[in-house]
Amino acid sequence: MVKAERLDVERIEPAPGSAWLIGLAAWFVPGSGHLLQKKWGRAALMGGAVWLSFFVGLAMGGHMFDLSPDGTAPVSLFDWSTMIQVPPMIANLGSGILYVVSWLMDIGFADDPAQAARTTYEYGNTFLLIAGLMNYLTMLDAFDVAAGRKS
Amino acid sequence: MKHFLVMMLFAALASIVFGAISKDTTHERVVYGVKVFAEFIVIGLALGWLLYFIPW
Questions:
Q1: What is the pLDDT of residue A11?
Q2: Residue B24 has what pLDDT?
Q3: Contact residues on chain A for B1, CB-CB shorter than 8 A
Q4: Quick check: A58 and A108 in contact, CB under 8 A?
Q5: Which H or E element spans position B24?
Q6: How far apart are CA A66 and CA A90, in angstroms?
Q7: Which value does ipTM take for this structure?
Q8: What ranges do the domains of chain A cover?
Q9: Handedness of CA A125, A127, A128, A130 (dihedral sign)
Q10: pLDDT mean across residues, chain B
């Protein structure tokens, strides 16, 4: 079967409900989507990369984003200072439970000038953003495997 | 040196994920991962030197 035909077949077949659940689990707990499908190696590598990136980012003093600019309450959702927080917040949200727990415990969200002055602050931010983005890729991979679109 | 090591760690983590989600066989994935890692390092160093000579 040539690639174009294979793509046509894939378009016709809808993904089973379990694939969506696995995708959700993969987002919420990084690596769990592959673990549930007994893809041990990929779970360890991809999930491990996300977890490590997240904790290295936190250890470097990185900062995560939510809708409150500079630690203050958002004026309005359509305010520029709030809207500019949204793209990095979406990246951070990719970390799933890591983001949620950190947000609930207020770890990595405080706007502390001393923390921002650390030489590794920007590196930390980048690692935290990348952890979330890598988990989105991991989630999509787990979904594709569960849907039978990938081995 | 610390900056370079951090960049290497970043490149390693990103290339692990890029390698794992791409291609069909384990061999192809490893080759692709190593290639992405090398590209991160080479481009990072090249940009570092380029910015070093730009005075602002």
A1: 62
A2: 81
A3: none
A4: yes
A5: none
A6: 9
A7: 0.86
A8: 16-146
A9: positive
A10: 92
Nearest residue on chain B to A120, judged by CA atoms?
A: B3
| Residue A100 main-chain phi, psi, to 5 deg | -60, -50
The H or E element that residue B20 is part of is helix B2-21
Please write the tens of the pLDDT for every residue from A102-118. Answer: 999 988 888 778 878 88
What are A127's two structure tokens?
A: 């690692």
Cβ distance B13 to A126 less than 8 Å, yes or no, reads no
Share of chain A above pLDDT 70, in %: 87
Instruction: Please compute the mean of the pLDDT values over residues A40-69 and round it to a whole number.
Output: 92
In chain B, which residue's Cα lies nearest the Cα of A151? Answer: B24
Q: What tokens appear for A13 in the block?
A: 């077949």
Tokens coding B19: 């390698």
Yes or no, beta carbons of B16 and A56 under 8 Å apart: no
Question: Testing the interface with A: which of B8, B9, B21 to mutate, by most A Cβ within 10 A?
Answer: B21
What is the model's pTM?
0.86
| Pair A84, A38: CB distance under 8 Å | no
Q: Which chain A residue shows the shortest CA-CA distance from B25?
A: A151
Is B54 a residue whose pLDDT tops 90?
A: no
